[in-house]
Amino acid sequence: MESGYKTLVLDAGNLFFKLEKIDPGVSMDVAKENAMTIVKSFNYISCDAFSPGPKDFSAGLEFAKKLQQESNFDFISCNIADSKSNLIFKPYKIVEKENFKIGIIGASSTFVSDDIYVLDPFESIKNSIIDLKSKTDFIILLFSSSDQDYKKISKSDLEVDFVVRSNTRRKSRDGGNSVFPIYSTGDRGKVLYQFDFKSTNKVDPIVDLPYYNKLINLEKKRIQNMSSDADVSLINSYNDNIQKYNNIINQAKNTIQVKQITLDKSIQDNPYVLKIVDEGKIKTRNLGGPMEDPHRWHNH
Questions:
Q1: Domain that holds residue 219
Q2: Distance between the two ends of the chain, CA-based, in angstroms?
Q3: What's the number of domains the chain is made of?
Q4: How far apart, in whole angstroms, are the C-alpha atoms of residue 79 and residue 122?
């Protein structure tokens, strides 16, 4: 991260396991040890909020609670409940950066897991928004979303400002054309999403710069691909659109810019995290299994 910026580290789910179902025996023991290694790494790296997804319960609810107990970061979910419909985690968290109060809601699409009942995500999200609206300046939703719920939220008018979606292979280059930006972060890890948020007030919506820059580039390509005898009124229409999108960018009070950082060999390793990983490898080998890269499967 660039120096001088206040940062939030968030994870939208499916952090600990790569599969929803794990075979018992050595495979389960190894998977649990890998999950504990991820917790230890995140404890060092620091994380402001984590919203569990279906794969985070692959070793059962009790082990998920154990991971929470071992974590020094907050697990949040407004709709993952126990068999009696009692929420297992806090529904949201409020953090303060500079003079801004930011509400962070965790949610998941419905899934099946022993001892867990997943409440309707949209009703639960709306209830959390009601709680947060008067207490915060901006609201971020961390959503482990199915494709069906992604389509639904894309067309919704939920009063959130920004959505990070996990539980998908899709990796967004922009936040799309919804009322609020929605970024899908993939399901394989190895890519860190850095969102740079700049704000001058607490009222205006967040303008997604990558989305409007994409629209500008599309209109420019249309003009470039036109023949010399093309309709002048059509060219003028494209230029008008370019001007409109530039005006939106230039007049924006609150903006988001995104950078995808590939976690490859060009990224310098942290010696302490490497030590945690190496210790985890030894433990998993003793259990009879290999140690995968603990950052391979999670979403930031």
A1: 210-246
A2: 14
A3: 2
A4: 9
What is the reported pTM?
Answer: 0.91
- Residue for token pair 């390793």: 269
- Whether the CB-CB separation of 257 and 199 falls below 8 Å is answered with no
Bridge partners for 97 per DSSP:
100
The arithmetic mean of pLDDT across residues 168-180, rounded, is: 94
Q: What is the pLDDT of residues 228-285, one digit of tens each?
A: 888 899 999 999 999 999 999 999 999 999 999 988 888 888 888 888 888 888 888 8
Domain shared by 44 and 86, yes or no: yes
Neighbours of 1 (CB within 10 A): 12
Which residue would you say has higher pLDDT here, 268 or 143?
A: 143
Do residues 280 and 183 share a domain?
yes
What pLDDT does 271 receive? 86
Same domain, 179 and 34: yes
Helix ranges (DSSP H) in 5-55: 26-45
Q: What is the mean pLDDT of residues 195-204?
A: 93
Q: Please give the Cα distance from 86 to 77 (Å, whole number).
A: 11
Burial of 268 (0-12, 13-18, 19+ CB in 10 A): exposed
H or E element: which one contains 193? strand 191-199
Contact 15, 56 (CB under 8 A): yes
What's the pLDDT score for residue 188?
65
